[in-house]
Amino acid sequence: MVWQIPDYTPVRNITEPVITLEGHSKRVGILSWHPTARNVLLSAGGDNVIIIWNVGTGEVLLSLDDLHPDVIHSVCWNSNGSLIATTCKDKTLRIIDPRKGQVVAERFAAHEGMRPMRAVFTRQGHIFTTGFTRMSQRELGLWDPNNFEEPVALQEMDTSNGVLLPFYDPDSSIVYLCGKGDSSIRYFEITEEAPYVHYLNTFSSKEPQRGVGFMPKRGLDVSKCEIARFYKLHERKCEPIIMTVPRKSDLFQDDLYPDTPGPEPALEADEWLAGQDAEPVLISLKDGYVPPKHRELRVTKRNILDVRPPAGPRRSQSASDAPLAQHTLETILEEIKALRERVQAQEQRITALENMLCELVDGTD
């Protein structure tokens, strides 16, 4: 289900999704938006199938049914959305071209342990992975998809059962490792110089984390030199964890905040499906991020009238029937236009009433 979060604070629970996408036969465990194409969403389920959707129409664009023989543990797009990296219970790391439906490169046992692996693309096009050794030690690796024979870097970490979840920031090339059940977050910088994966520091706390969320870069407070923000899930609360770089100057720090991907897509879904690729549309954070207006997701189902009927024997149409058919079609189109205008007017009226209600509630508080 896809939900629209309004810009204002709603006064009632949101109970209706914008759209429900039905296609998996088992529980969906992974979701990932395409980095550059509008309304393109990837989902992976317990049925070992990856489906790529056009959320704007509710249609299945692509279905990758036969590429994974077992449960999929993680999926990650590369920077322009032309490839995905997946890890699977069969211990294989795969690089997949989703539009061709082909595995373009793969590595068996990137980490030799049986516990789940995770993988993310880096800015340079490498693959950063986390997993376990045969002796159940946690391990991280860096791989070049063009040469999967040997890792660029491979480091053992510690002995723990918690799977390391990598959160990668392409602007700073820092990867944050959060283990489920851990009470710490470790972070590393990935560079093009040996040893390629450089340990930076560890954030420690007393309570273990049940899960972690990662704020997109444009949601950070640039005036406080905030470079990352996590949301740590406890049993009964959610705790923000803020990473900052101390600076004496109050000026905008260009080195901390290069232009970063914004909310505007570079491609339409049909363009991407046809084979086009584009890098993300970048925005500056110099004055802080201001979200654009009219961000509402519009779902437009395909019109069945747009689909031409199959070729076959047709009844010959007399000359007297043609004007009548044309008149009927024009009448239907006028009625559809009037209905659309009425719906839009009602939407505006509902929005205005909700805003007035919010103002009244704020005034009573």
Based on DSSP secondary structure assignment, what is the total number of beta strands? Answer: 21
Largest sheet: 4 strands, antiparallel
Q: Which bin fits the share of residues in helices?
A: 10-25%
CA radius of gyration: 25 Å
Count of discrete alpha- or pi-helical segments spanning 4 or more residues: 2
| Beta-strand content | 25-35%
Mean pLDDT: 90
Summary keywords:
365 residues; alpha+beta; 4-stranded antiparallel sheet; globular
Explain what you see:
The structure is a single chain. The protein has about 375 residues and is of the alpha+beta class. The longest helix has about 45 residues, at about 320-365. The protein is globular, with a radius of gyration of 25 Å. Helix content is about 15%, strand content about 35%. The chain has helices at about 270-275, 320-365; strands at about 30-35, 40-45, 50-55, 60-65, 70-75, 85-90, 90-95, 100-110, 120, 125-130, 135-145, 155-160, 165-170, 175-180, 185-190, 195-205, 210-215, 225-235, 240-245, 260, 280-285. The chain is built from two helices and 21 strands. Strands 1-2-3-4 form a four-stranded antiparallel sheet, with no helix packed on it. Strands 5-6-7-8 form a four-stranded antiparallel sheet, with no helix packed on it. Strands 9-10-11-12 form a four-stranded antiparallel sheet, with no helix packed on it.
Secondary structure blueprint with pairings:
Blueprint: E1 28-33, E2 40-45, E3 50-54, E4 59-64, E5 72-77, E6 84-88, E7 92-97, E8 102-108, E9 118-121, E10 127-132, E11 137-143, E12 153-159, E13 164-169, E14 174-179, E15 184-190, E16 197-204, E17 211-214, E18 226-233, E19 238-244, E20 260-261, H1 269-273, E21 282-283, H2 321-364
Antiparallel strand pairs: 1-2, 2-3, 3-4, 5-6, 6-7, 7-8, 9-10, 10-11, 11-12, 13-14, 14-15, 15-16, 17-18, 18-19, 20-21
